[in-house]
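To assess whether the prediction recovers the assembly geometry, we first specified each molecular entity separately, as shown.
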Amino acid sequence: MIRLSSVTKTYNSGKPNQFTAVDNISTEIKAKGMTVFKGPSGSGKTTLLSLIGCMIRPSSGRISLHGIPTTFSPGSGTNDAFDVTSLPETFLTEIRRTTFGFIFQQFNLIRGISVLENILLPTYPTGENHASSRKRGVELLEMFDMGRHAASKVDVLSGGEMQRVAITRALINNPLIIVADEPTAHLDSRLSLDFMKIAAELKAAGKTILIASHDPLVYDSEIADTVIEMRDGRIIGSGQGS
Amino acid sequence: MIQHTAIIPLIASSAISCLMFLFAGWKSFLIIRRWDIRSGSELQLQLERATYLISTIIGFVLFFQIISLFLYIATVDHLHNLLAGAMCAAGSLNANGFGYPVLILKTVTCLFGGVWLVINHVDARGYDYPLIRPKYVLLLALAPLVSAETVLQFLYFSNLDAQVITSCCGSLFNAGTGTLASGLAGLPRVPMEVALTAAIGVICLIGLRFRITVKGGYLFAVASTLAFVVAIASMISFVSLYVYELPTHHCPFCILHKEYSYVGYPLYAALLGGGISGISVGTLMPASNIPSLAKVLPGILHKLTTITILLYLAFGLAVTLLVLHSALKF
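The predicted structure of the complete assembly is given in tokenized form:
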């Protein structure tokens, strides 16, 4: 479970161009389900996902993760709650690497290197044995029907293929939480439906999936367990998915 | 004021260090007063971010402080050529009333600055800022010392006068003149040799006991501090005699000269390192019960104990070799 308590994120605090992207949000996100944040551009969805994913820190408030195993907790129990907002950067890095998998709107794949090399990038800082991570990377590619493209440069892939590579990369460290920011923004309806099928499979595999989207195909999907509606940095509504 | 290549960087870098320390001191004051890890307030989150900045700044400043002790000694040693009567750093430091106080302050800030760096290293290994308050209390305590050192160092260098005749080390460290230096020089050789051997032996025994049983950490820190004092006194009392191969020359600074292969630098560095790591063991003992450090602290204490033992043993071995290879025989 992810708990947010009075979370606020203000940019340029105290300056004339001060902007509050997330305004005093308190909510709880269930584990092993899909939560979709919907709302227009500028409503604070991406900022909120970045806060939950420990990419940025809030200006005030706390975010805690529950049931996340770590190497540094006393006893490494999975019932421990961690306040990620106060974690020193060293520990936050571990959480970011091992707990979260990120899928970005622009995919953020590195051109000029192969699909498999892109997928293996998140494994390098973990110090994992290269052979085992490589084996897992190939298995994941096979799972997403991308095995034949393992040695191809990402430059030659279609949009849908790029996204599957991005999803595979997000899964390579076997994270518990998948964070996807506007994952269908650059996809046509068929590819968007393909993405939602993959998301359903990940949910069935016990992953917690957080998606920010203003695509009805995503937030109206029956796969979504909870839909949280945002506007001007606040939650204006929340309900069960279709 | 004597213009010298190393004086200006020393004064400038000390002034910058002092300013950084004052900034960090102010932030430390806020952290000590307002820190509340359970709060999600904007101030608390700002303080959490500020602690990274302060730790980084002070880490660099204290690292410079340690280097600057040796740079200061090397500089004043080099200045003896310009001061009438001075034969080494001892005479240069005695050229006015600020030289020795600066040396003492630098040594103290080096020792406790080193301890602060160790505490900071340990604090960064805990996920909940376990040593935040003691770390910043020590930093606040160091701030006036660093400030005083900066001012006194400036006064020392700015009041150096090449026309004033200063004393040479031979008269400063001459037994029977009634000063602390002469008192140290006058310490009997054989009892001091026994004391140094015993001090290093005790450090090893207590350290090994601590490594095996994890008991006696405070005792180890006290023994380490006493060994540091005994070793410094031994340098003046008898080690110097064997190095210079002269039965009456007790100067602790001439040993830093080229003709003695700069052997003083590694000896003093070993003592400083041993002192810092030994004191750190005692300082970290109260943290043994902190849950977030339960996994990492025992390993760190073991390493510090080993480092202390090895550095004092290295010092003892170096002194033994110097004594054995000296042409001076009693």
